[in-house]
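Researcher: Please predict.
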Amino acid sequence: MTERERQTAPRDCDEARERMRGVVIPSAIMAVLETLARAGFHGVVVGGAVRDALLGADGGDWDVASDATPQEVIELFPRTIPTGIEHGTVTVLSGSGEQRHAVELTTFRGEGVYHDGRRPSEVVFLRALEDDLARRDLTINAFAWDPLAAVLTDAFGGLEDLRAGLIRAVGDPAARFAEDGLRAMRAVRFAATMRFRLAPETEAAIAGALEVFDKVSRERVRVELVKLLTSVRPSLGLHPMASTGLWDRVLAPLEPLARDQAIEACDRLPARPILRLARLLWPVRYDRTQVETIVDALRPSNDERNSLVRLTSELVDELALAVELPEPGRAAIIRRIFAELDPAYASDASALLELDAQAVATIEAAITGAALTTKQLAIKGGDLIAAGLAAPGPQLGVLLAQLLDAVIEDPSRNNEVALLERARELLG
């Protein structure tokens, strides 16, 4: 959420209601709400989509809630799927043909004690909307809009917090974060993505719920961290992570100066989460065990893991030194670095080092069009065999590696005649 969008928060409930009146809600959802109303039930759209609509942004995915129990929903609608019926969620298939949509409808509910820091021990279905909203995490996510009656429900001061730019827990913040450990990470993520600040009591409650946070799967934490690092100013979420203690649970503990430098550097880097995460790990890059332990704990994809490992490797340090060297020799050193690092990381490595335009141009000039793998050589193993210079086997691979080394040193050698001549020299 941008600063401009935050400034458009409605001034009062009347303006908020009028803004919601102008929001187009998908016809499939409206059909479900109308069917509920005809049967005497109360249905609303809730959560983040309402918040975004109040700020003039695209509502995106609309969550629907109702006082109808799952069994009543199944009896009311002819086509349903018991998606998460134990938690009160039933998917209603609304419309037909190309207009057919799956609408997730969740019963107003209360929740029992959270034993694992993520899921309640029991779910109790309720009839009152405000009781359902009371279990939500943040006030800005606790809105409900009834488009049929044109009623906006804001039971916990969400509009006031939107205007003030505050991230505040619903009700007792200590209770909210003790229920669900992921809420702490969501709070700092919203601080970054919406450019809001944490309310003092909410920030204090996060610091008191770290043991509950530790129970949350790292996959879920990674999702929130990636969203935070994709924001325009990730520092708005990273500083609260540090002050609340979340940082040391997710990333490498750092001295305050190194941590603050890493945070501020993230704001300057392109909004690529893996690049920014590499910068946060940069101060501990020489401790490979620590880096890989943190990375693996976040359960990244193989590509993401490879990127983080490469971008925190000593090769990037070598690149920082190489671009400062004079010619001759500088370009060859840069090519050797990227032959091992992979030229696909040139942009991220340059950004991570915050190289100036001249240094970036030096790197591009050195590697553009250059052969950095044996597959890019102008000669293949079969050519060497046909010329009688090698036989199939390990020595053929050694010879090709030696030819690549010669081409990295002098790219003009990457032609068949020169490579065959170099092969003869190597064998002679």
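Model: The radius of gyration is 29 Å.
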